[in-house]
């Protein structure tokens, strides 16, 4: 965990230092001092660093939120394929925001966040209900298939809602890719209370998730209120996913990859796995953002594209595992 914190600090420094413009370290230090002390920007290099600082902070928060949400969803559903993107939660939040923009003319950051959280919650419940139908209940394969079908359907609905509105179509399509560009402290301030609530609920659910991992009957025998434990933990994941999607757009696969890496390094105890997933998610999203700035210079690749390249092979590998139905 200490090593991960050190890696995260190094990635934050690289995120501030690396971009389309090469900036001397003296200007980077001066820009950081200006941000802390409220000084004036002296040159274009310091101005560029001033833009990168909120971008770095947003990538850190969004990555931590999605990594933690993925670990919570996998714990709640006991499904190794659970992920905000694969289960359709991110796309449900996207559809809610698109409907709010196109039909109700919402424009405030608070309205975006509320709409995204409601959409994420409704989508999560819908996918879980569909995946629970038939014999065997909510198996990993059924949930993955239900989530994939829901994501495709909601993605088509987003296009259908936005297509007649040429005035908003470009912005919504760009937002749907998923990215942290254009971040400002004002946008982060609006989303911070929702993220803080999601982090608190999620991290405090670690003991309950350990009980749920034993099975519903054994958890109930140990005195755990299974339905309440599952609902509270899921609420934390929905808050994290909805708030992150509202400000960054849907970013897929990060919540799938990070918890599995965490299990390899710190085991299955959620008291360790949840904070590790949050730190690992922040590291992965920061690294993806840095890579996106480097490989397409002077243009940039949004982090949603980079994480898809990383996460898709991992998802295919997991599906092809022979014993995935037993996890």
From TrEMBL:
InterPro entries in the record: ABC_BtuC-like, ABC_transptr_permease_BtuC
Keywords: Cell membrane, Membrane, Transmembrane, Transmembrane helix, Transport
Official protein name in the record: Iron complex transport system permease protein
Principal place of residence: membrane
Location within or outside the cell: Cell membrane
Gene3D superfamilies in UniProt: ABC transporter involved in vitamin B12 uptake, BtuC
Pfam families xref list: FecCD
Transmembrane segments: 56-73, 85-104, 110-131, 143-163, 188-206, 227-252, 272-291, 303-320
Organism in which the protein naturally occurs: Pseudochelatococcus lubricantis
UniProt family annotation: Belongs to the binding-protein-dependent transport system permease family. FecCD subfamily.
SUPFAM superfamilies: ABC transporter involved in vitamin B12 uptake, BtuC
Membrane topology qualifier: Multi-pass membrane protein
């Amino acid at each position: 965990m200490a090593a991960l914190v050190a890696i995260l600090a190094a990635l934050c420094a690289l995120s501030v230092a690396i971009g389309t413009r090469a900036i001397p370290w003296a200007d980077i230090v001066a820009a950081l001092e200006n941000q802390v002390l409220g000084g004036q920007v002296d040159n274009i290099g310091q101005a560029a660093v001033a833009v990168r600082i909120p971008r770095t902070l947003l990538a850190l928060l969004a990555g931590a939120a999605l990594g933690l949400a993925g670990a919570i969803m996998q714990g709640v559903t006991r499904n190794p394929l659970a992920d905000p993107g694969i289960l359709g939660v991110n796309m449900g939040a996207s559809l809610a925001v698109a409907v709010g923009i196109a039909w109700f003319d919402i424009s405030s950051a608070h309205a975006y966040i509320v709409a995204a959280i409601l959409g994420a919650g409704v989508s999560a419940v819908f996918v879980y209900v569909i995946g629970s139908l038939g014999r065997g209940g909510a198996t990993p394969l059924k949930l993955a298939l239900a989530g994939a079908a829901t994501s495709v359907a909601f993605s088509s609905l987003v296009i259908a809602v936005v297509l007649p509105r040429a005035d908003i179509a470009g912005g919504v399509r760009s937002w749907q890719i998923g990215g942290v560009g254009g971040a400002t402290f004002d946008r982060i301030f609006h989303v911070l209370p929702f993220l803080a609530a999601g982090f608190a609920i999620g991290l405090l659910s670690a003991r309950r998730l350990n009980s749920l991992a034993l099975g519903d009957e054994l958890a109930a025998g140990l005195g755990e209120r299974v339905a309440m434990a599952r609902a509270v933990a899921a609420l934390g994941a929905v808050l994290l996913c909805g708030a992150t999607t509202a400000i960054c757009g849907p970013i897929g696969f990060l919540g799938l990859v990070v918890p599995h890496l965490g299990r390899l390094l710190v085991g299955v105890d959620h008291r360790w796995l949840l904070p590790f997933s949050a730190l690992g998610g922040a590291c992965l999203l920061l690294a993806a953002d840095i890579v996106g700035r480097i490989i397409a210079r002077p243009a940039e690749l949004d982090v949603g594209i980079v994480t898809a390249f990383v996460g898709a092979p991992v998802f295919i590998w997991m599906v092809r595992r022979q014993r995935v139905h037993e996890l």
